[in-house]
Amino acid sequence: MRTIAHISDLHFGRLDAPVAEGLIADLAGRKPDLLVVSGDLTQRARRRQYADAMAFLKRLPSPQLVVPGNHDIPMFNMAARFFTPVRKYRQMVTRDLRPVYEDEQMLVIGLNSARSFTRISGWLNREQMAFAEARFAAAKGKFKVLVTHHPFFPPPRRPDANVIRGGEKYLAALSAVEVDLVLSGHLHLAYHDDLRSHFKASRRGVLSIQAGTATSTRRRGEPNAYNWITVSPQLCTVAVRAWAGKAFEESLVTRYESDESGWHKIQQVPIDQVGAEVMSDVNKQ
Ligand SMILES: [Fe+2]
Ligand SMILES: [Fe+2]
């Protein structure tokens, strides 16, 4: 079994400071095997914002795996945007744009889906996919996770949201090398489901988990939140921990089981039932 704390869209420059302190407090007693940060560390890719974001990340559990988001590329300085888009990110966060975490049970790979030529959509390229596919194919029997800033498909309530171009094609390639899980952010909406909820023809499932904005004021009708994820070979539990005014609290717990056809949602516990530990079968597919 492995645990992942999945935070996203910190947006230093548009920070909600009490929420940020609350996140540190909530993670203080926790020891995830990995902390994933799926992009948008900053609001405008400024040096000060990167410095503040890194000081913040130093106060959170390690090891950490970080990928950049579209806000981590300069927006108004066109020379920097097109000629050195990730220079500050590489100087101040990590030089590694395809970070890897691997232990005896789990392989996690991060890829940069942000591009200079678009402010919103996500892109991957052949070279990135070849790297990830080769590493995943070699990790027989491990739980396999890909991290990108942009999600591969949108939540049902925002079908027009910006996602990774060609997501269906990439997910087919990822499922062929038995990737179990993709983690992303960008939309500031917490959402998770099997890829077959969007791409019906897929033979094998990949579970997509999207995080809300952990610490920024750029909320889109949802509270700040992050995901506490527990994985084992055929089981994945996603606990959304949302800001409740004074602290982060568990707001929704969903349990998935996988078989040869993919991930199936078996239990979901909404916020008003968490305390009573009432569970109900939902959406058995
Ligand atoms: Fe964002
Ligand atoms: Fe973003």
TrEMBL record:
Q: Does the keyword Metal-binding apply?
A: yes
Q: Which GO terms describe its molecular function?
A: hydrolase activity; metal ion binding
- Membrane-crossing ranges are none
User: Known InterPro entries for this protein?
Assistant: Calcineurin-like_PHP (IPR004843), CNP_phosphodiesterase-III (IPR050884), Metallo-depent_PP-like (IPR029052)
Sorted UniProt keywords: Hydrolase, Iron, Metal-binding
Q: Tell me the protein family, please.
A: Belongs to the cyclic nucleotide phosphodiesterase class-III family.
Identify this protein by name. Metallophosphoesterase
Per the UniProt record, the source organism is: Humisphaera borealis
